[in-house]
Amino acid sequence: MGGVMNFIRQAKNKPEIFPLVGILGFAVSGAIFMSVHQARAPDVVWNHKDNKYPWQEIRDGEQVKLTTINQKYDSRWNRSHW
Questions:
Q1: 75 forms bridges with which residues in the sheet?
Q2: Contact at 8 Å (CB) between 60 and 74?
Q3: Whether the Cβ atoms of residue 74 and residue 61 lie closer than 8 Å to each other
Q4: Is 3 left (phi over 0), alpha (psi -120 to 50) or beta?
Q5: Considering only CA atoms, which of 47, 66, 67 is closest in space to residue 57?
Q6: 76 pairs with which residues across the strands?
Q7: What CA–CA distance (Å, rounded) separates 67 from 5?
Q8: Contact between 77 and 58 (Cβ < 8 Å)
């Protein structure tokens, strides 16, 4: 507690510390929120009911990437259902 009280006493004389503390507090709280969120749900599943494993429906040669670099595909992938 001594360090926190010392910081508060010094902050009264230097008001330029308040925006830094606010930005740092926002960043730390956002990092904590995201780490808790990722720890509770580490995988991304868009549709839990129809197909839990959509990557098993992709055939060889289908283009499923948004950007392809130095790759050529014969067919284009289409989503059959939502």
A1: 62
A2: no
A3: yes
A4: alpha
A5: 47
A6: 63
A7: 53
A8: yes
Instruction: Report the alpha-carbon distance of residue 2 to residue 26 in Å, rounded.
Output: 24
pLDDT of residue 57: 78
* Sequential pLDDT tens for the chain (82 residues): 788 888 888 888 888 888 988 999 999 999 999 888 877 765 655 566 777 777 787 777 776 666 667 666 566 666 776 6
Residue for token pair 């289908």: 62
Strand partners, 40: none
Residue 73, C-beta contacts closer than 8 angstroms, at least 6 positions apart: 61, 62, 63
d(CA 60, CA 31): 39
Q: Read off the tokens for 80.
A: 């059959």
